[in-house]
């Protein structure tokens, strides 16, 4: 069994048939990183999980890109 990294903060968002998990975890060197996971059940009944990891050095650019995209959803 893989050792789970230390969780700093977690949030869950249910959106229709999908659930999103936002977990801030700590690396072995003590830096925080974000894991965004999407979970759903496919047409065959199989559970599907997709994960995206965003590390400290990428976080500001990733967040800024999301903020720029926000205007398209208003």
- In which range does the helix fraction lie? 10-25%
CATH fold-level assignment: Nuclear Transport Factor 2, Chain: A
**What is the second-level CATH architecture?**
Roll
Give the overall form: flat
By CATH reckoning, the class would read Alpha Beta
**N-C termini distance:** 44 Å
The biggest beta sheet is recorded as:
4 strands, antiparallel
Q: For the CA atoms, what is the radius of gyration?
A: 15 Å
- Return the string of H and E elements: EEEEH
What is the mean pLDDT? 93
The total of beta strands comes to: 4
Number of helices: 1
Low-confidence stretches: none
Describe this structure in a few short sentences.
The chain is of the alpha+beta class. It has a single domain, classed as Nuclear Transport Factor 2, Chain: A (Roll), CATH 3.10.450.700. The protein is built from one helix and four strands, in the order E-E-E-E-H.
List the helices and strands and how they pair.
Elements: E1 6-15, E2 18-26, E3 32-41, E4 47-55, H1 56-69
Antiparallel strand pairs: 1-2, 2-3, 3-4
Properties at a glance:
4 strands; alpha+beta; 74 residues
Task: Explain what the structure shows.
This protein has a four-stranded antiparallel β-sheet with strand order 1-2-3-4. The chain is 19% helix and 51% strand. The chain contains one helix and four strands. The chain is of the alpha+beta class and 74 residues long. The protein has one helix at residues 56-69; strands spanning 6-15, 18-26, 32-41, 47-55. The protein has a single domain (6-73), classed as Nuclear Transport Factor 2, Chain: A (Roll). The mean pLDDT is 93.
